[in-house]
Amino acid sequence: MSPRAQTWLVPAAVLAAFLGIWEFAADQGWLRPIQFPPPSRLADSFIDLATRGFPQGITLWTHAGITIARILAGHILAVMLAIPLGILIGSYPLLDRATSPLVAFCRSIATLSLLPLALVWFGTGEASKIFLIGYGCFWVMLSATIGAVKLVDPVLIRAARTMDTPQAEIFRRVILPAAAPRLMSGARVALGVGFMVIVGAEMIGTIRGLGSLIMEARTFYRTDITMVGMLCIGAFGLAITTAMAKLEAWLIPWQARVEGQPK
Amino acid sequence: MIEISKLSKVFANDSGAPVLGEVDLSIAPNEFVVLLGRSGCGKTTLLNLIAGLETPSGGELRVNGKKVTGPGAGKGMVFQQGALFPWLTAKANIAFAAINRGMKKDAADALALELLALVGLAAAADKYPFELSGGMQQRVAIARALALDPEILLMDEPFGALDEITRNEMQDELLRVWAQRRKTVVFVTHSIWEDLILADRVLVMAPRPGRFVLERRIDLPRPRRRSDPTLVALYDEIWSHLHGGQV
After folding, report:
1. Domain B2-243: what homologous superfamily?
2. What is the DSSP code (8-state) at residue A202?
3. Is any Cβ of chain B less than 8 angstroms from the Cβ of A257?
4. Which of A108, A223, B73, B212 is at 20 to 30 A from B124, Cα to Cα?
5. For chain A, what is the largest distance between any 2 Cα atoms, rounded to a whole number of angstroms?
6. B148 touches chain A (CB under 8 A)
């Protein structure tokens, strides 16, 4: 067996064994279906959700599409705000000292505790959901950007200054690309936060989206649907994070060699 | 022409003696001056002051009669670690400076290729710094410093991180480039042989406060041989100043 096959086969075998034991335990009546619906039941639910939908007519794909669109909207808005602000704060130590308690404070507020406020400020429509996701992503991205800027090798900035580079150009042509690898990993962490916040953000005021699917299923004691919804969020999260890592490698080809290489 | 009088530098929150005492120095156009000393003797601080990257605590610093107020403007700099931008190819690193000067991209690229050829790296134009060896990176850094066609080339231990063989090759390379593009060079090193091979004039520095303790002209033609008795004698003299009780 090639090493490459091993890296796939071994985890796959572990997963298969896990599912097999679960199915067997449910079949023997050791697990209650309402608490732990067996994998075969989940597979049926998945097909049912993918074709007929729940509530009737809204398929899993519609839910997923709406959820992903909300996450991306909140995430992109947050990143676009956080990067310029973070570069500014990270570049001026005084500004950094002045704002760091506020950043730590806002970052520590659990995003979902803002749900009632978001409803008051933005109503029950899309805006409140995108706000919540954006809020969660923003502080993570802001901290990541500030850190990334502070870690830019000062000799690069000195080199740029000896080449008559105006300050605005130093931000754009030196600090931004030098910080890019850390900005990308910050954006990935922020996206993870978006996926964590989404279920809560979709709890109120909508019947579309994976979060609302999960909550809606609860009221009908459909644990199977809740589980399929969770699995979908996990799968999409994994897929998007992997895609971002690929994008990162393509956008910043120098990164892999820069990090960890003796200078 | 660089004129320095009573120049000093004290770093804030540094209670000890000034990093650089009151030093006087005059460097003629196209002169190759080497500042030599152990770490902490203020040689890099002096270089950064000339570069305009640091502001003096006292004294005067003029280049061509004009007071130095900041970096750039005719002062190219090569740093110890190259300080190339890792996200740009060798060519784009060199073109970076030219684009700042308002040069069109095509012209900047053409200039970059010409300078890469000058430092013997024409084939590496599209390589990223991480794909280049330490010596090659320093060649690109030298080409980049030359891109603004500066009158003065400031070099901060540019070969300090290289192995000895590469370092010797780079010294020859620098002298070859210097012969073609005559510049005033201020070169900082802690290698005695390096200054003997390169310099028109050596200034040996000592710390606390940073000051000159020995000044020697070397009028030998280049390339120089290490076995040259004049150089060997100079080596011993400089060594005794660096190592002995006279510092």
Report:
1. P-loop containing nucleotide triphosphate hydrolases (3.40.50.300)
2. T
3. yes
4. B73
5. 77
6. yes
Distance CA B112, CA B246 (A): 47
Of B75, B101, B130, the CB nearest to A254: B130
Residues composing chain B: 247
Which of B154, B7, B4 minimizes the C-alpha distance to B75?
A: B154
- Check A164 against B53: CB less than 8 A apart: no
Asked casually if ipTM beats, i.e. exceeds, 0.90, the reply is no
Q: Which of B72, B83, B148 sits opposite A156 (nearest CB)?
A: B83
Q: Note the pLDDT of residue B244.
A: 62
As a whole number of angstroms, the distance between CA A106 and CA A134 comes to 13
pLDDT by residue (tens digit) across A36-64?
A: 899 999 999 999 999 888 888 889 999 99
Q: What is the pLDDT of residues B7-66, one digit of tens each?
A: 989 887 666 678 898 899 999 999 999 999 988 888 999 999 999 999 999 989 998 888
Q: pLDDT confidence of A256, banded at 50, 70, 90?
A: low
| Domain residue ranges in chain B | 2-243
Q: Are B150 and B72 in contact (CB under 8 A)?
A: no
* Pairwise CB contact (< 8 Å): B86 & A258: yes
Residue ranges per structural domain of chain A: 59-254
What digits encode the pLDDT tens for the residues B58-92? 989 998 888 888 887 689 999 988 799 999 999 99
State which amino acid sits at residue B155.
M
C-alpha to C-alpha distance for B133 and B170, rounded to whole angstroms? 12
> How does DSSP classify residue B33?
E
Which residue of B lies nearest to A164 if distances are taken between CA atoms?
Answer: B72
Arithmetic mean of pLDDT over chain B: 88
